[in-house]
Amino acid sequence: MTRPLAIVFYERLLPGSQVVNRLADMGYRVQAMHVAAEVPHVVESCAPMVLVADLVLRSGDFSPIIARLKAADSTKHVPILGYCDPKNAKVVEAAIASGAKLVAGEAGILEQLPQLMEHVLALD
Questions:
Q1: Domain limits at 98?
Q2: Buried-exposed string 77-98: b where 16+ CB fall within 10 A, e elsewhere
Q3: Which of 1, 41, 102, 105 has its CA 20 to 30 A from that of 80?
Q4: Beta carbons of 122 and 34 less than 8 angstroms apart
Q5: The model's pTM
Q6: Listed residue (23, 7, 114, 12) closest to 54, CA to CA
Q7: What is the pLDDT of residue 124?
Q8: Rounded to a whole number, what is the distance in angstroms from the first to the last CA of the chain?
């Protein structure tokens, strides 16, 4: 049986690389990405089970990418788990409004990742 694919987008090394390692330890095949503009194309072509994304970019936030993924018929079904500093309410609200299924605090994402993945992958 093939292990499920999780795509992880991040620009900041920590906690991004730690999320990649934790998902791999949990049995996922993980594809790390570092260029936000490439995410929609890769998600469409690879059909991952989930997208985990650092919501804070050097040039803004990730919500326009989320909105683009949710607007496309070929990618709207992919659940998105975002993470950032919970004090950044504007980014959290924008991600949820754009279609992220769940936004977690970056301080606890590693410890809570199994439960977060269970929640984000649950069928609505």
A1: 5-121
A2: ebbbbbbbeeebeebbebbeeb
A3: 1
A4: no
A5: 0.95
A6: 12
A7: 66
A8: 25
Q: What is the pLDDT of residue 1?
A: 60
Q: Which residue has the tokens 């929640």?
A: 119
CA atoms of 87 and 71, how far apart (whole Å)? 28
In the block, residue with structure tokens 């919970």: 86
Convert the pLDDT of each residue in 25-68 to its tens digit. 999 999 999 999 999 999 999 999 999 999 999 888 899 999 99
- Count of domains for the chain: 1
Q: How far apart are CA 124 and CA 54, in angstroms?
A: 23
Both tokens of residue 63? 């919500």
